[in-house]
Amino acid sequence: MMDELILKEEETIPKNDGRNLPWEILVVDDEEGVHQVTTLALKNFTFDNRGLKLFHAYSAAEALECLVKHPNIAIVLLDVVMESEHAGLALVKKIREDLNNINTRIVLRTGQPGQAPEREIIQNYDINDYKTKTELTANKLFTLMYATLRSYRDIITLEKNRKGLEKLIVASRGISSRGALAEFIGVTVEQLADLLNIDETTIFSCKVTGYILLEHCLEVYSPENPLGLSCINISDLADGKRDIILSAITEQKNVFEKDRFVMYCSNSSQIVLFFAQMNQTLSDLDIRLLNIFTENLIVTLENIQLNETIIESQKEMVYRLGEVVESRSKETGNHVKRMAHYSELLALLVGLDKTEAEMIKTASPMHDIGKIAIPDAILTKPGKLTPEEWDIVKTHPKRGFEILEQSSLVVMSISAIIALTHHEKWNGRGYPEGLKGTDIHIYGRITAIADVFDALGSERCYKEAWPLDKIIALFKSETGKHFDPLLTDLFLDNLDNFLEIRDKFAD
How crowded is residue 264: how many other Cβ atoms within 10 Å of its Cβ? Predict the structure, then answer.
């Protein structure tokens, strides 16, 4: 069997994460000489292989404007006395309270320490150091910058860890609710981009069965083409992409390089890989988050496999029960298959999402389950039914609902709705409740069209199959009477698609 590898590619816009940018420093003083001396003293200063970028403000108002414009300023070297005696102290409160900036380190510098006593200032204002201007020689300034930037770096690292953890929780929550592989892949790609703040990247996602060799065909996955119908060979990938992907498969683990990674997720039947090429270097935090995220993805992948097994089991059970009912009434099992596909198609045409349409497809074969309570003498009678016999037949929707309504399975709940409502009519003259218009559940309205279309075109013990032109004429005449007008128009406008289903599952 040919091994499958599903790939998804996503292009976005670049973003610099700031790891190689200079540290931003704001010098606030009303004396030009202080700015010149500070600039000269810090001219060749570096910390963690990053230089400095100095901003200059000559008043508290200018400084506040600069801080709003540049929220990543690491240190403010702040004079106390400027346009007023306490302009610097007032600015400290605005930074901490109005801007809610608790990360920027603030160092007060004063030429008049008597006007702002150190002990009082340290106690009453959220600053990180207090120096007289005469203290700050070139060496002292160097030591101050090193210690303060180290503190700022550690605070930012902690903040990134906190935000990364929050993103990880949100991303994992978004992934864990996914029940289908295609949806799982799409959402994971989105969450990965958000988790790492990566904007310029190519992301592949792949499903693999068995072992992958260079000559094997890779089915290309995209949101528009979730089945992956186009095909390339793994050897056609660029060397870097091919090698790191094969390395992850061989080692069965995540593989990280300087600016790229492959996340490896697998369960008992499949492997899913996520490849990203970035324009920035992966940090230790990025790698830790990706490893934890991968563990969550593996659990989700296992849940998807379990969920798909359960759904397939439910489908099998529903089809088998539907076939039992149809065989009692001398109808073929293909009736329930056609019904299922007709219902799914009509649900999609009217705008229901794929998940809901799939559930209707699974549930619709149970529409006549209540017929198991109808005596064979009536159910298989070749001639016309008496009024009393017809009254008995009309009890089958309610009987079917009563059989199914107590189940906790979603598919059975939908089957119960369909069983109860598929013989209601748009004009209110149907049974068992005589519901009218949109009071009839959309599932029942959809199934009614699917059921009648197939029943009229099929031979039964009590009638011959109708020709197509006669069936079309009936639907046109019954729109707004028996059938929902919108659904009828959709059915007739897309009749060729319904005929394809009929021919595919012909008796």
Answer: 21
